[in-house]
Design goal:
Blueprint lengths: L35 H8 L13 H8 L1 H16 L5 H24 L9 H6 L3 H9 L1 H14 L3 H7 L5 H12 L3 H8 L3 H6 L4 H17 L4 H15 L3 H13 L1 H10 L1
Helix pairs in contact: 1-3, 2-3, 4-12, 4-15, 6-7, 6-9, 7-8, 9-10, 12-13
Length: 267
Amino acid sequence: MPSTGQIQDPRSFLGDRFDLPPLPAGDLPAAAPNLVPRSLKIVNSAYYDLARPIGELRHAAAYLGADEMQRIGLTVAVMDRLTPDDPDAFRDFWYHAFHTALAARQIARRHMTTCDLEELHIAASLHDIGKLVYMKFFPDAYRQLQVHAGQKGLSLCEAEASLTMPSHADMGTALCRRWKLPGSVLRACLKHELEDLSGGHLDDQQQLICLANLLSGLSTTEMTDVRKNEIREVALTTMGCSEAEFLLLMGELYEMHLKVQQLTDEL
């Protein structure tokens, strides 16, 4: 395993000179026909839960509105520009992204009904795009982070700090600024971890996406009992729900896995 100094330095991404491919211009996804098939798959996913399948962009815009279609097109454009060489890592990333979006919608419906849900899908889906920056441009560094986290029993955030590498939150917020992504996406990239939720000072949508990220991970990822209990406690406090309501929500998140798997397999 090479040392951090032998790997292309991820800190280079935080400067102004990194050669980053631009996003397509114009009204998305219509302005970039290669984005249309993936966009329609997202439109027809369980997140929007439409009564019938949509086969044309104009029909999708009629149902969801032009602004939401622009956000869907932007999500797909990010997927297109940041596709890493590792297809399994790419699929795993989008699995968690879309499961987090579904979880956010479900939490909002049940426990955070006063949250503003505008831009929720794009913010929840892209909260971890800093990981895609690592996968796409610094794959060796990302593998080193994963190995270090696995060997030491650390979270990715803890591994980043241990190896003094930029956090994926910093990478994501830098990308948001370079690509001028919506402010909701930048805020989701900046704050979406357990420590952020425990520390407070988040807006309602950040709280919602933090919860969705954590509960999605709780339902899909192996973690220590201590970590599980920390997530459970902060979720109960933030949502103000009972233990029975929490278990019902977790059951619903488990049931979403097949729908998310079908979507990511098609993408």
